[in-house]
Design a protein that fits this description.
Elements: H1 3-14, H2 17-24, H3 28-42, E1 47-50, E2 53-56, H4 58-86, E3 91-96, H5 104-115, E4 120-125, H6 128-137, E5 142-146, E6 155-170, E7 180-181, E8 190-194, H7 198-210, E9 217-222, H8 225-233, E10 238-242, H9 246-251, E11 254-256, E12 258-259, E13 264-273, H10 280-288
Parallel strand pairs: 3-4, 3-5, 7-12, 8-9, 8-10
Antiparallel strand pairs: 1-2, 5-13, 6-10, 6-11, 6-13
Length: about 290
Amino acid sequence: MERNLKVFLAVARSGNLTSAAEMVGLTQPALTKTIRRLEGDFGAKLFERTARGMVLTSVGETLFNYAQTIELKYQQAHEEIEAVRSGMVKEFKISAGPAYHATIAPDLTKQLSIEFPETNFILSVDVAVTSTTKLLDGEIDLMLGAFYKSPPDGLETLEIFKAEITPYCGVENSLAAAGILAPDMLRNRQWIVYKRDELAIQKLEEYYAEHLLPPPRIVMRVDPLSSAFRIVATSDMLVLAPAYLEIIAGASNLCRLKMEIPIWKFPSGAWYRQASRHYPIMRRALELLPNLID
């Protein structure tokens, strides 16, 4: 990437000339000259010196946004060219949301490891909302989760199935035999929620509000989801989880509750960087995923 932009980004991120100079391998006077040259090119000050260090001006903020995009595109170009040249990646990192981490993501990772034995795999659990930035930054390569918004510049998606977030209760809970539930039957119930999934919690709160119910009584936020299943199985509490996990929940003595009006339905699938779509391993992952849905 162009050296002047590297210097600018280093100063913007560190807020300190000495630290920035060390980051880019320049002396401080040379770094200061580079910033002055940039300010001359743009005809405006990019930084203000303050007691807190170097702070971006409004013009500097604008350049910072563009510089980050240029940096990202450069990294993605380098990444894609290397993958095309070598035909492999050394490490492949997958992040899986609640509907995926019990069966789909492990099965995918296992099959890929067989077909790409020279690649190391890292499988982690997270939700799409908190993984998008990690995907853009290259901290993960493939994200499996909800399509909670349109993909930002640099990312693409592949829909795998329509997901539904639904309540579960223990098999001894009175709701287990209630048939199809009206929203009012959730009134005053205690909930355990998956603490990573703030969006699902928000949807539950919106559901209660839309049906003129008092706010849901969330008494516990748990990670991992299997811990919530264990607690709910022997209590009167409810847990919010993907409908796709019904068989796994049943093995934990839980019953999926069928709602007259679903709490939240959404498209779900794979998120990945545009720059990685030509990787043989990414192409194979996207081919395998639809076949891993039961």
